[in-house]
Amino acid sequence: MGCSTCKQNQSSIDKAMSIEMPGGEIYNGHFFLKVVTFIALLVAVPLVIVVLLCQVFLTFFVPSKVNEIKKKFNKGFKKIVTGVFRVILNIKERKILRKQRKFDKTTSYYDEPEIEVFDINDVEDNNQKDSET
Description:
By secondary structure, this protein is mainly alpha-helical.
């Protein structure tokens, strides 16, 4: 039933929806990202619900202790965050020290034929000569 125009529009919509993606892949290259996002949501949503339920429980039944619990939680959270940043900082420092030791072991780059070394003074001298002429 219906006019031919509606049927034509419906068939063009069906054609547009049935176009295969380039490469004909099911997941179009984003499957891993979708899986990680799904797992993160599976973990985050129940965690948020539990935290909110605990907050409501504490607010209704133990209102005098809520501020103390919040302060303890904030102190613990700050310790965790600073600990994580401290670990990251230590890793970066180790990498810098490792690179510095490796650099200190290298006596000169002029001895190696594969490496071309440009001296900044030579470049400045060439620029001055070019500007004089």
